[in-house]
């Protein structure tokens, strides 16, 4: 737990004067808006599980796409399969074909890593 120079409270805006919230043994801090460090830990855990269980290898050229897919799966993990299917079909119907997603087998591959999209 971080302390101010005067030894009181946390330097972060956590609830309950910087004390961990949750069950005994859990180190979970909650901000005033309800966000916790558990959100990031959950995302990275699922991202790593996706790497080992489904993809087996992340290439640097397509890492942003894998991260976006993991974020979508994290956001929709409590939805039913039907809701996820309808959401994906709706987004596919509204989106135009992007040059990154066509002609891959004909040699249309990324030449450089995409750091920001």
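^ structure tokens above, recovered residues below v
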């Amino acid at each position: 737990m971080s302390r101010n120079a005067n030894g009181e409270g946390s330097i972060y805006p956590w609830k309950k004067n910087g004390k961990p919230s949750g069950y005994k043994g859990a180190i979970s801090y909650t901000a005033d808006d309800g966000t916790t460090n558990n959100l990031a830990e959950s995302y990275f855990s699922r991202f790593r599980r996706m790497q080992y269980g489904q993809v087996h290898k992340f290439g640097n050229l397509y890492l942003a796409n894998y991260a976006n897919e993991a974020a979508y799966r994290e956001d929709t993990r409590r939805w039913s399969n039907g809701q996820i299917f309808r959401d994906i079909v709706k987004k596919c119907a509204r989106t135009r074909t992007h040059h990154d997603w066509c002609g891959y087998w004909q040699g249309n591959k990324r030449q450089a890593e995409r750091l920001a999209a």
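The chain has two domains: 1-35, 38-101.
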